[in-house]
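Title: Prediction job returns without error message
Component: structure pipeline
Severity: low
Priority: P3
Assignee: unassigned

Description:
Job completed but the reporter wants confirmation the result is attached to the right record. Sequence as submitted:
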Amino acid sequence: MEIDNQNINNKHNNINKRNIENNINNINNINNNNNNNNNINNTNNINNINNNNNNNNNNNNNNNNNNNNNISMKNKNNNNNNNNDNKNNNNNNKSFGLYSLEQPAPLPLWLLVIVFGISISVIVFLFLNFPSLSPQHKQLIRLPKNFKDVKLLSDILSQYTDDNYFIVITTFGVIYTFLQAFSIPGSVFLSFLSGGLFGLKVGFPLVCFVATLGATFSYLISYYIGRNLVRKLFPDKLKLFSDSLSQKRDNLLNYIVFLRITPFLPNWFINLASPLLDVPIHTFAIGTLIGIMPATFLAVKAGIQIQNIQNPSDIFDLKSILTMAALALLSILPTLIQKKLKVN
C-alpha cells in the first residue's frame, strides 16, 4: 500500500511538474508573442514616424521650392518693372535730350571763332583767285538781299562764268555752305542766283547738296560747341520742339521732311535744335535733302527767268503753294496713319 501511495504521489508530482513546465512555456510563449508584437508595433511606429518625417521633409521641400519659385517670379517681375521703368526714363530723356547726362561736355566757344575764321579765310582765298573784275563790277559784288541784288549779280557773274566755270561754281558752293553752317540769312537768294548762272540741271542738284552739307555742319557745330548757348537762347522753342518730336519719334524721317517743306519752324532753328533733341545725324541729313527739294526746284527754275521776276508772288503762285501743301501732307501721312491705327 505504501508503494502504491508513493507511485501515486510520484505521478502527481510528475503531473504537477509537467503542468508547471507547460505553464512556464505558455507564459514564455505569451511573453515572446507580446515581445514580437511590441517589436512589430515599434517597427511600425518607427516606420510611420520615418514616413511622416519623409512626408514632412517632402512637404517642406515642396514649400521651399514653391517659395523659391515665388521669390524668383517676384524678382523677375521686379526686374521687368525696373527695366520698364528704365526704358520709360530713357524715353523721357530722349524726348528732351538736351539734358542727357550721356552727352559729352561741349567744346569751348573760342573754337567756334576759329572755325568761323578758317571759313572766312577760304572764301577770301577763292576771291583772290577769282577772275579779274572791272572796278565797276567789284563795287557791286555783295551777298544778295533782295531780287534786285540777285538780278544784278546774275548779270555780272554770267559774263565770267563760261570762261571761269570751276572757280565760280566752287566759290558759289563754299559761300552757300558757309551761310547755312553759321545760320546767316541770304542763302535763299543764292538759290535763285544758281538758276541764272548754272541752269536747272546743274543748279538744282548743286543747291540741294550744298544746302544739306551746310545744314549738317550747323548740326555738328551746335552739338559739339554751341549746345549750352542754344539752350540758353531758345529754352521755350526747344521745349515745344521736343514735345513735338516725342510724338513723332516713330516716324522721325517723315517729320523732318515735313518740317523742311512747311514754314512752321525756321530752317536755322531745326539745324541747331535737332542734335540737342537726339535726332540722328543720318535721319537729319536725309530728311533735309528730301524736304528742301520742292522749294529748291521752284527757286532754281525761277532763277532762270530772274529778269522777269518782280516779287515772290511771281514764283510762289497758287499752283506752287498747293503743290507744296500736297507734298507736306504726303510726308506726314505715315505718321497720321500710324496714329489712327493705334487709336483703333
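Comment from assignee: result matches the submitted record. Confidence is low (pLDDT under 50) at residues 1-9, 23-101.
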